[in-house]
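Need tokens for this chain, all 344 residues.
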Amino acid sequence: MLTATYHKRILHFTETRHTSRDSLKSKPSFYIKLVDDKGNIGIGECSYLKGLSPEPWGSYEDKIKEVCTNINSWGSYIHGGLNNWPSVQFGLETALKHLEKKSFNLFDTSFSKGKSSLTINGLIWMDDYAKMKKAIDEKINQGFSCIKLKIGAIDFQKELDLLEYIRSKSKDITIRVDANGAFSPTEALSKLHDLAQYNIHSIEQPIKQKQWNEMEILCKESPIPIALDEELIGLFDYEQKEEMLTSIKPQFIILKPSLIGGFKGSKEWIDLAHKYSIGWWITSCLESNVGLNAIAQFVSQYSNLIPQGLGTGQIYTNNIPSGLILDGEKLTHNSTKWKIDELL
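Here are the structure tokens for all 344 residues:
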């Protein structure tokens, strides 16, 4: 028999973080704690992001409370009962995995055991031109071989200037850009051609989601490979996922477990990507180190990985002290470094 409780925590950013949708100073996370008859503990994070998470905020905490109250029916929740609650699914899956392993070594991989590392991209948050340029210099000096630039918030020409600046520093750095749906369908192709002169690896979500016909045309005609991100949110049935991918035919998909159904949902997307020869990588979605650790260890099961989007462990003033260690573009794990007393 299991017992379950939960704990809410407001995570505070080290500085205001800007996206094309919002400016964030803090965000909530809920931590599910499981205890079995022998006193073993499992902890998982349910991370909610206003404006992006598909769950209704008004009943979000009630759903977590319901899951905790009925925790011994966890199987029915994991296998369909939380289809429309992807971050709660992820939190429950992580807590169960932690309980099973009795350790933050959640998966039996060399990364989990601290014997190998994951390569991550260096994320440049939206800000004014000078601050973004300074952040680029920092990432280059830290040795990042892949830099991801969020675009769509400042003047487009200044964003092009930033890309030119990166290229002036190195012709070999892999550049990804993320538009978060900032372009209109009528202007998108023209802007993609402007971006292409800087040898861009990929662009995430150039137009808003749910415009399948327009996105299909862009994927076919764009000089830059297109990666779908927000397009995956809200698609929980396997048939829906397959229909979307075969309709749009993207070059890449971006997986955010808290938004697409945790380990279960991510694995379905990965299986479909392999079936249709679509590239993919995984990205955290402003989770604390508890969720970030689960995502990193999940993806470490796969081979031939390109740089992953897992560089958000240092953005909070009150993050959970963890075994995740970031050195330049290399993320490693040491299970002896975890300190989660405040969540117990």
